[in-house]
Amino acid sequence: MSELYTKSLAEMAGLLRSGEVSAVEAVRACLDRIEATEPKLRALITVMGEEALKQAEAMDARGPDASRPLWGVPMVLKDLLTTKGVKTTCGSKILEDFVPFFDATAVVKLQEAGAILIGKANMDEFAMGSSTENSAFFSTGNPWDVERVPGGSSGGSGATVAAGQCFAALGTDTGGSIRLPASFCGIVGLKPTYGRVSRFGLIAYGSSLDQIGPMTRSVEDAAHVLQVIAGHDPKDSTSVDVPVPDYLAGLGREDLSGVTIGLPEEYWGEGLDPEVEAACRAAVARMEELGAKTVPVKLALTDYAIATYYIIAMAEASSNLSRFDGVRFGYRNKEAEELIDMYTSSRTQGFGDEVQRRIIIGTYVLSSGYYDAYYNKAAKVRRLLREDFDKAFTKCDLIAGPVCPTTAFKAGDKADPLQMYLMDIFTISLNLAGLPGMSLPVGLGKDSSMPVGLQFMGRPFEEETMLSVADCLERNLDPMAMPEL
Ligand code: GLN
């Protein structure tokens, strides 16, 4: 079997542009890899094999186009990004047969840059979860140990990239769903600043929190993909009209002199698994050897982040998901005899337990008697959380900490939803504050032998600082091997 699948996106894009590898060869390498690994992994809900090959043939016939940075590169999308003519399920029975009539803006941008879309990745239903076990269809295995979860909610995107089924994937992150699976699968995952990437065509979970971002096998690859998808979009009024910098320009720095890294004590103490702490501390020590200065910072409201996030996210979800009523989109209970019964039974049968739990809680916290006590209060705490970050960033350029208190856990281990919510403790504050963050693999845990991710958090619209520092650290750590599958 061709070993092309082991290449990074940057290498592959170079080979494709120079004509050394054809688009058909690139697509075939990925499809072969999918065929070999998918029975064990189950990362993909849809594989667009034939369409991708046809597109690749047409592109090869015209020859490489150097003006398109991702020309011929096979990529995968989380299955909540709309794709014209291709089923988009959100991991839900209610959208099992939903075929959108338009592409998400991020998808259009990838296609314009020459990427070839080969699959749609499994996910927790409507992006609600941290393990991909909430998918209505099947669970996905972690490529490092298929008995363990790949993280979530973009677990299919994480697994497909880590296993070499494609060269990059897009995920979405509402409370950690890019960073957590990146950490669990040993890849790079970047959640951009809120407003950096258009959400047009992203089927909404928590509209004030959701962002689309790249999941890749290297920092450089993440920079390439972000470069393509970032920017203002008239179709999304929350996308911000701030110039897109050259994300590749800051890569390749020799050391980290002049960089100050803040270490929040709340992220480095109690509750952190010793193997995660050890791997993350070793990475921080490496940054110090490279010339970075570290300072303690305070994110004092971390303890309140989970409560705040779950009130806001569920409130927004209950409103966003009201559009799935059995009339306009997706599944309808055809046996229902009258209208109200049709709404209720379609939603009861179409949504899974976790989604229904969140709709109920979200509706409750928005109800007139409780709005002030819950939603309004959470909105205030959210503001204070952002102020904590702003204060911390007066002392440092970036904040670093673990992505998750543990490495990937065994499937079925977190059946209690509250236990699952606790996995998000280090990732959700960033979404509430709207800031950019990423997960960088820094090694394997010494007890579990599973990947550990270090999280970087940055100032708004300063993704390039994060990429530049992470790229330097990545080149100075032992290279991460690909998992044997
Ligand atoms: N685990 C969090 C949740 O279930 C975050 C999910 C996400 O980022 N989409 O809401």
Brief overview, please?
It is built from 15 helices and eleven strands.
Description:
This protein has 485 residues and is an alpha/beta fold. The protein has one domain (1-485): Alpha-Beta Complex (Amidase signature (AS) enzymes), CATH 3.90.1300.10. It contains 15 helices and eleven strands. An eleven-stranded mixed sheet has the order 1-3-2-4-6-5-10-11-9-7-8, with helices on both faces. Helix 8 (274-289) links the parallel strand 7 (260-264) and strand 8. Helix 7 (219-229) runs antiparallel to helix 15 (463-475). The protein starts with 8 loop residues before the first helix and ends in a 10-residue tail after the last helix. The mean pLDDT is 97. Glutamine is lined by residues 127-130, 153, 173-177, 205, 313, 424.
Write the topology of this structure.
Layout: H1 9-17, H2 23-41, E1 44-47, H3 49-62, E2 74-78, H4 105-112, E3 116-121, H5 155-162, E4 168-173, H6 179-185, E5 188-191, E6 211-216, H7 219-229, E7 260-264, H8 274-289, E8 293-297, H9 302-320, H10 339-350, H11 353-366, H12 372-392, E9 398-402, H13 417-422, H14 428-433, E10 437-444, E11 451-458, H15 463-475
Parallel strand pairs: 2-3, 2-4, 7-8, 7-9
Antiparallel strand pairs: 1-3, 4-6, 5-6, 5-10, 9-11, 10-11
Helix pairs in contact: 2-3, 5-6, 7-15, 9-11, 9-12
Glutamine (GLN) binds at residues 127-130, 153, 173-177, 205, 313, 424.
